[in-house]
Amino acid sequence: MTAENLNNPTAGSAEPYWFEWKTGLLCLVELLDEDSEVAAVAFQLHGIKGWDDVGVRFRDGRTRLLQMKHSRSGDRLTFGDLVSLESENALSLLRALARVWKSEMESRGNVECVLATNRSSGSHWYQGRPPLAEFLARVKARVAEAGSLDDVSWEGEDERYPRAWENFIAELSDLKQSEKLAFLQSLTVDMDAPDLEELEAGIRERLAVLTGLPQVSVNGLFNALVASLRKWTCQTRREKEWIDREVLGACLANDEDAPPWLGHCEVETPEPFFPSRNAVVNLLRDSLLSESAHKVDFLSAEPGGDPCLLVVALFNRDKQIAPGLK
Predict the structure, then answer these.
(1) How many helices and strands, by DSSP H and E, does the chain display?
(2) pTM, entire model
(3) What is the CA radius of gyration of the chain?
């Protein structure tokens, strides 16, 4: 093998990891929606490699497992990518994912499996292999209504489809006949998935919609999510695998910096201060420093009465009670 063959333009790049994590964050922010069916999200699930990049639990008991395939080269995802062997002793991608699906079904119960990629589908037939998106759409429509694989019929279709189906099903030989159908019914291949910049924009947009906060605050929330990935994606650092609404809320609240003006009254009061209002300032001060069990004072005034200036004046004059003013 020559040095040219060893060169890999994507080696050392973190794009695939950020593709996984930002996809997970986009799922995670849905926990802020009280009407969302999402109950919890996990990154880098513990267990067998295959459907472990992102997990989403729903309120109805379903678990969606995502396996992410990212490409910076613009390659298309083809039928051959699913059924071909990468090397002599390796499994095809489809066979490997089917094996892990069986294990996940046994341990997690009701699971859905999504193979997500930013790659587009191959668009042409090649050596009897169909365009992947067209083939999978036909398979999905047939298995959704099938009671068994024997019910899957390609009558009336291009005669190449039945042969492609045979090659496809051959990669599921590790599964029982009933398991093959269940796997195909649970499998989704999501092509043309949002890439990194689009994912980030989507996360920010959902944060803005679900919180109603201004953009400057949304930036802080987004940064808090990204900072938490250092724990959520590392099995040795995280306290628990699944992130629920409570954990998400704590993450966002802890990183929410206090506004720079909090605790500082920078509104200038007129000098000399209104003599008629000194009595109210003194009365408010005495009330706040009293031994009363009720430590909340309500201050109100007619329009133009400027109760804010009374509080500012009290704050600036008496540092003893300033820390308690809100």
Answers:
(1) 12, 6
(2) 0.72
(3) 30
